From TrEMBL:
Domain of life according to the entry: Bacteria
Keyword Signal tagged: yes
The protein's name in its UniProt record: DUF4124 domain-containing protein
Keyword terms: Signal
UniProt entry tagged with the keyword Signal: yes
UniProt source species: Piscinibacter gummiphilus
Length: 154
């Protein structure tokens, strides 16, 4: 039985594949035909060995994040962490009573304007995107008021 070059390379490839990952590998920078190439074997008669250092450990990353957060908190003009919203009595905003039925009516009207704008914009040469966008803004504003007042949508 003869060993061919193909068998030799296949065997060498299997041996290299079975080796575990090295913690520090050497990389060689070579110039081949005027182009720079990087390889794991030394360059024939030329090249430099480059040392690739491992990145920071998980502990170092966490320590750096904690230090950055501490520095950020000391900067002037930084915003304090948000507080949890305080519960309000249902149907009441600060100092005034909210009419949930009126808000639900406004919400329904805004949805009607939005839907009419969407239907109308399907006609050729009609652009109602601003009308739809304004109605969506109204819907969001009204629903935020309803949520803060404890009103349920109907």
């Amino acid at each position: 039985m003869t060993i061919t070059t193909r068998h030799l390379f296949a065997t060498a490839g299997l041996v290299l594949a079975c080796q575990g990952p090295a913690s520090a590998q050497e990389v060689f920078k070579c110039s081949v035909g005027g182009k720079t190439v990087y390889q794991s074997a030394p360059c024939p008669g030329q090249g430099k060995s480059l040392e690739i250092k491992p990145g920071p450990s998980e502990e170092e990353v966490q320590a750096a994040k904690a230090e950055a957060d501490a520095r950020k908190a000391k900067l002037p003009g930084t915003v304090a962490p948000a507080r949890a919203p305080q519960p309000m009595a249902a149907g009441h905003a600060i100092g005034k009573t909210v009419d949930c039925a009126k808000l639900n009516k406004q919400r329904g009207d805004a949805y009607g304007r939005r839907n009419a704008g969407i239907r109308g914009s399907t006609s050729p040469n009609v652009d109602r995107s601003m009308e739809v966008m304004n109605a969506r803004d109204d819907i969001n504003r009204i629903e935020a008021q309803m949520a803060s007042a404890g009103c349920a949508p109907t």
